Amino acid sequence: MLIVGVDSGATHTRALAAREDGTPVGSAASGPGNPHNIGPGPAAAEIARSIREAASGETPDVVVAGVAGLEDPELQRELRYALEALRPAGEIHLYSDAAIALDGAFLGGPGVIVIAGTGSVAWGRNEKGREARAGGWGHIIDDAGSGFDLGRQALAASLRAYDGRGPQTALTQGLVEALEVEGPLDFPGVARRLDTTRMASLARVVVEVADRGDAVARTIVRNAASQLAALATAVWKNLNLTHGHTVAPVGGLFTHARLRKAFASSLSRRCPEAEVKPPRLPPVAGAVWRAAVRKGLTPGEAMVMLLEGWAQTAGESR
User: Fold this and answer.
1) Could you give the CA distance from residue 241 to residue 124 in angstroms, rounded to a whole number?
2) What distance in Å separates the CA atoms of residue 136 and residue 114, rounded to the nearest whole number?
3) Which of 69, 162, 214, 241 could pair with 184 as two cysteines, CB 3.0-4.6 Å apart?
4) Same domain, 254 and 293
5) pLDDT at residue 318 in the model
């Protein structure tokens, strides 16, 4: 039996194929697969391409795909129809990207994840199996603490500095270089043309400038960490979790030590009983775990260790 997990986000789509015992047989990466951002047809094409490449031409028995941007039921139906027309697998099951990240972090058990990448969301489950979420309502009205939010905040701070409404900041030069423009007067026009992925890529500039001691950049990072901690706390309280449960940070922003540490510090003040630990598996491996469950298998520790080994060898971010 061949099972495939897919993690499809606003920036990348990743797929991992494995045998029923968890032995990885192939992995692949393709472009963005968020149907809200690029449409269900193009998203389905990226997901199908990653499945086929990971499976090396073999037709998987079952695929579980965790996809960002599935809040709209109609969009989810359109994506399903588009995927079924491409026939990349025997069975295809769609979940939110947060759901597979939660599976990867806690293997079906209780806990809370906070995803901070292009967007942001918190998702959790308690011992009774009840789930709750906070955030993740899209970059136009939410995604607080996300990469998109950091990029937007950096551009705004630079323009306030230019106006004399705010303190001077090294962010301005960092953004000029990253965007390859003449100066801050070009920022408004460029910002209108940036897609969510490109805006989120500016988060790297913010963290780098913060690491060099810039007070404005450090404030933006600290505020983002506080927003992410607020997401986790909201879910924690909603689920009535107690001491001994874990909050797992997931996503590209948490690869930056400054933000990771600021998040843990802010969460300890808001929710002192929570323990911050990395997830057991990355989301794409969580999707494989969920695919095994969907086929009636019982993923044990041996399977999890195989998937962990793959993640370490592949350098897959958790």
Assistant:
1) 10
2) 10
3) 162
4) no
5) 54
